[in-house]
Amino acid sequence: MKTTTILLLAVTNATHTVRFSLISIILLTIPQLIYQVIRLFCWPAKK
């Protein structure tokens, strides 16, 4: 019983860390993408 619970905890912990890392990556990349798009659209307007 103990080994199974430990395995379940490890699996859930791993999935949570993976999900958290994916969310953090998305949150970090989305503003950069928005900035790039804004720069692409605003660059011709400046000239």
TrEMBL record:
Recorded superkingdom:
Bacteria
Q: Which UniProt keywords apply?
A: Membrane, Transmembrane, Transmembrane helix
What transmembrane ranges does the database entry give? 24-42
Q: What is this protein called?
A: Uncharacterized protein
Provide the species name. Legionella donaldsonii
